[in-house]
């Protein structure tokens, strides 16, 4: 069977990042890791290949230098059931040097972009009443971390 698996290129911190991700996200684990031999200039002992699972989905990663940094063009999307879950992921991922971005996006300390999105946001922006959907989108556009109570208040309108 054909498999399509995301592959993450880290400068030199794949082991630290993957250990953090697999501790943070339930149903996650590191499945295998290999290292560059000492004979590879500047790379000896760094991660040549890591296979890991986040929330039951497989990923690969490697250390390969700064030639291709992460950009916002690719992000990991975390669907959150409630505000407590949003806050848990948000706080953990921005800790240690992460950066808040608009509309529920952030960059973690390794530069990888994440979307921390409550299910309620998706329900509201897809609402059959276009006024509720519009007010929800407008509220989201003014947020970094998504605040479900503020979204619901905006959706209700004046």
In CATH, the topology of the largest domain is named 2,3-Dihydroxybiphenyl 1,2-Dioxygenase, domain 1
Beta-sheet strand percentage?
25-35%
Distance between the termini: 53 Å
Uncertain runs are none
Sketch the topology as an H/E string, one letter per element.
Answer: EHEEEEHEEEHHH
**Total DSSP helices:** 5
CATH top-level class of the largest domain:
Alpha Beta
Our count of domains comes out at: 2
What is the average per-residue confidence, as pLDDT, rounded to a whole number? 98
Helix content: 25-40%
Please compute the radius of gyration using only Cα atoms: 18 Å
How many β-strands, per DSSP? 8
Structural class of the helix and strand makeup? alpha/beta
CATH homologous superfamily label of the largest domain: 2,3-Dihydroxybiphenyl 1,2-Dioxygenase, domain 1
Shape label: elongated
Would you kindly provide a written description of the structure presented here, covering whatever features stand out?
A hairpin with a 4-residue loop joins strand 6 and strand 7 (105-107). The protein has 158 residues and is an alpha/beta fold. It has two domains: 7-63, Signal recognition particle alu RNA binding heterodimer, srp9/1 (2-Layer Sandwich); 75-156, Roll (2,3-Dihydroxybiphenyl 1,2-Dioxygenase, domain 1), CATH 3.10.180.10. Helices cover 32% and strands 27% of the residues. It starts with 6 loop residues before the first strand and ends with a helix. The mean pLDDT is 98. It is elongated and about 65 Å long. The chain has a four-stranded mixed sheet with strand order 1-4-3-2, with helices on one face. The chain has helices spanning 14-24, 83-94, 119-125, 130-141, 148-156; strands spanning 7-10, 29-35, 47-54, 57-63, 75-80, 99-100, 105-107, 113-118.
């Amino acid at each position: 069977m054909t498999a399509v698996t995301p592959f993450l290129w880290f400068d030199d911190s794949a082991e630290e990042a993957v250990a953090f991700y697999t501790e943070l996200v339930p149903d996650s684990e590191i499945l295998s890791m290999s290292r560059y031999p000492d004979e590879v200039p500047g790379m000896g002992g760094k991660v040549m290949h890591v296979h890991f699972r986040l929330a039951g989905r497989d990923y690969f990663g490697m250390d390969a230098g700064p030639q291709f940094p992460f950009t916002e063009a690719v992000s990991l999307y975390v669907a959150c059931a409630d505000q407590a879950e949003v806050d848990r992921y948000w706080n953990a991922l921005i800790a240690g040097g992460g950066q808040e971005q608009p509309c529920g996006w952030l960059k973690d300390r390794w530069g990888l972009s994440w979307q921390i999105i409550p299910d309620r946001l998706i329900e509201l922006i897809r609402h059959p009443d276009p006024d509720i959907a519009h007010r929800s989108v407008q509220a989201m556009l003014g947020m970094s971390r998504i605040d479900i109570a503020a979204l619901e208040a905006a959706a209700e309108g004046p």
